[in-house]
Design a protein that fits this description.
The complex is a heterodimer of chains A (270) and B (337).
Chain A: H1 18-37, H2 40-61, H3 73-102, H4 105-110, H5 116-144, H6 153-181, H7 184-200, H8 213-219, H9 223-236, H10 242-269
Chain B: E1 5-16, E2 19-30, E3 34-38, H1 45-52, E4 60-65, E5 68-69, H2 74-77, E6 81-84, H3 96-106, H4 111-124, H5 140-152, E7 158-162, H6 170-185, E8 189-194, H7 197-203, E9 206-211, E10 214-219, H8 221-227, E11 231-237, H9 243-250, E12 259-261, E13 266-271, H10 274-288, E14 292-298, H11 302-310, H12 314-317
Parallel strand pairs in B: 3-8, 3-9, 6-7, 7-8
Antiparallel strand pairs in B: 1-2, 1-4, 4-5, 9-10, 11-13, 11-14, 12-13
Helix pairs in contact in B: 3-4, 3-5
Classes of the chains: A mainly alpha (270), B alpha/beta (337).
Chain lengths: 270, 337
């Protein structure tokens, strides 16, 4: 192979270091958030679904659902809705990733002297910020329709933290999915196909005790149930915290490690 | 001016499964010149662009930008290149200025530099007035210009553009051409892919024609035109059905084989003896009683080159090696008897 010297007057300046990663992640996070804020339709639509579920289960089905150990169904419901929101909110990551891929934005960023890890890190970080905002609104709505915390503030915050950790994990998982399907439409469909059974075959809306054995075996062991149960224990002081919280954290961390690793690997090959 | 080879590729190959996208492509682009990569859809242009832009690793061969190996030292190459892909990859929900400042930041410019550089680029592209507006409100031409602008904020020494004018109306296309010419004058080296011969003819210092992942011809626009022969005899038939008959009729008259263009109901024939060929052709057509709409001799266009090179069965005849250094004239194709 012949090698030519670099001609004069051409600078090769930017070095890759951890600082580049941090700065680029923040820049790209800001981009994603600005894009989200300027498409308020999407934010409003994202709020509409959990709002409808709150109203539906609080006022339509709620009266007929009795969960042992809970005086008020709305107390049981809101942590479930929070986890549901984390799951559906995270699934929008797939759409965002696929959209950037199909419209050439990802190609542009990858051709720049940007930290490549920053591109995916920014995507999930922006989703986390959006999720925090949405969850705050959902809990606010819950308080309006009768939900009350029955535990110390520290525990309540820990519960919210668990929800965010789960949302962050989901966001990484769906980022991975978006990198494979590559079209925003497919990503949207795939997202709901995966999210739906996880939300409903779980302790999201009612106790799993009334489910048939085979379904309960699944429902009790999947991350949505662990996370919802842990949040309830933390926010309401109902039942033991340690076991569900431990499982919830383990699930979320496991999903993050596996999805982030695979997504980073996949991202290099796109 | 020293002509440093800014882009060099040797034997670049890439397959997707059994589908061969590139089959050993050699290119040299000298500093401050523009190479147009001409080919149809699916000829392998985008694959080549993606390899040069460090987005895709080749299966075989290598590529260098400014002497730096693209695959081994991608991070350094990215500091030298600007990419304008096939889509205007600017964000609708950001203003023009925000788009540029984001990219400038990702090139590693500090906030103040990024701001100043973005303003400079907006002014250069005639977008300063609308710089604060969301891209959503831009016309197609404005979006394209902004996209090119985004690849300029880092002052790249090498610009790689994948069909930059596809989908633009003629006025916007000419606008973009002027901009590209300005950039090359300032010393930027450019590789531009296009499906439009007119575009290659106007912009290119060197043209490389690729078809099915292979370089089938290369040279300056004039060299490529010479390859067709001296001049071109052109016949337009009144009826599409007569095109094939005219081809048979003209065979053997010129310095090469007649080529049919069914869509335009047109047959072209390279010739070095313009008057004799014209008279002979006129006689034969008259005797045959085929109604024709037009008959004439003209200078060859790149269209003729392209048609001659990519006509079915033309591949073996047209397999002319790429000139090893820019400026060396390419051998003229020998005409079949």
């Amino acid at each position: 192979m012949s090698t030519f010297p670099i001609p004069e007057g051409i600078r090769v300046g930017r070095s890759q270091n951890p600082w580049t990663f941090v700065v680029d992640t923040l820049r790209l996070t800001r981009r994603s958030l600005l894009l989200a804020v300027r498409m308020p339709q999407l934010i409003i639509l994202g709020l509409l679904l959990p709002t409808m579920f709150v109203l539906l289960f609080r006022y339509v089905f709620g009266g007929a659902i009795i969960v042992p150990g809970y005086h008020s169904y709305v107390d049981y419901l809101i942590p479930g809705i929070v986890v549901q929101t984390a799951l559906f909110g995270g699934s929008s990551s797939a759409v965002g990733v696929a959209d950037d891929l199909s419209k050439g934005a990802t190609d542009r960023f990858r051709s720049l002297p940007t930290s490549r890890g920053a591109i995916l890190a920014a995507r999930t970080l922006a989703d986390l910020v959006r999720l925090a905002y949405t969850i705050a609104l959902i809990i606010g709505l819950g308080l309006l329709v009768g939900f009350r915390f029955h535990n110390g503030w520290l525990q309540v915050l820990a519960g919210a933290g668990l929800a965010l950790l789960f949302g962050y994990a989901v966001s990484w998982f769906f980022t991975l999915l978006g990198l494979f399907v590559r079209s925003a439409e497919t990503a949207a469909v795939a997202g709901s196909v995966i999210a739906f059974p996880l939300v409903f075959a779980a302790s999201t809306f009612t106790a799993t005790a009334s489910m048939p054995h085979w379904l309960r075996a699944f429902a009790d062991r999947q991350p949505v149930s662990y996370t919802a149960n842990a949040i309830r224990a933390l926010m309401l002081g109902t039942g033991p915290v340690q076991r569900p919280a431990l499982y919830a954290v383990a699930w979320s961390c496991g999903i993050i490690v596996v999805s982030a690793t695979l997504a980073t690997w996949r991202f290099k090959k796109i | 001016m020293t002509k440093f080879p800014m882009i060099v590729t040797r034997g670049l190959g890439k397959s997707y499964g059994s589908n061969v996208a590139l089959a050993g492509v050699d290119l040299v682009v000298s500093q401050g010149t523009i190479l147009c990569l001409l080919g149809r859809n699916g000829a392998g242009k985008t694959t080549l662009v993606r390899i040069l832009a460090t987005l895709l690793a080749p299966d075989t061969g290598w590529a260098q930008i400014a002497g730096i190996e693209v695959r081994r030292d991608a991070a350094r190459v990215r500091q030298l290149i600007g990419l304008a892909g096939q889509f205007a990859a600017v964000d609708d929900g950001l203003s023009g200025r925000e788009n540029l400042e984001l990219v400038a930041g990702l090139y590693g410019l500090r906030r103040r530099e990024a701001r100043a550089r973005s303003q400079e680029v907006l002014e250069r592209l005639g977008l300063a007035q609308v710089g604060g507006q969301l891209v959503r409100t831009y016309s197609g031409g404005m979006r394209r210009r902004l996209d090119l602008g985004a690849s300029l904020v880092g002052k790249p020494a090498v610009l790689i553009m994948d069909e930059p004018t596809t989908g633009l109306d003629p006025a916007n296309r000419i606008e973009l051409w002027k901009l590209i010419e300005d950039l090359v004058r300032d010393g930027t080296t450019m590789l531009l892919t296009t499906q439009y011969l007119e575009e290659a003819d106007r912009l290119a210092d060197q043209i490389v024609v690729i078809e099915r992942g292979r370089v089938i011809a290369g040279g300056t626009p004039d060299e490529l035109k010479q390859r067709v022969g001296g001049d071109v005899l052109e016949v337009r038939t009144t009826n599409a059905a007569d095109v094939e008959r005219v081809v048979q009729l003209l065979d053997g008259l010129g310095s090469g084989r007649p080529v049919a263009d069914m869509r335009d109901q047109r047959v072209t024939l390279p010739t070095t003896e313009r008057v004799q060929t014209l008279l002979a052709a006129a006689r034969r057509i008259e005797e045959s009683n085929i109604p024709i709409a037009d008959l004439g001799v003209r200078r060859p266009s790149l269209d003729d080159v392209f048609l001659a090179l990519t006509a079915p069965g033309a591949e073996s005849r047209a397999a002319v090696p790429l000139p090893s250094s820019p400026g060396r004239s390419t051998e003229t194709r020998t005409a079949p008897a």
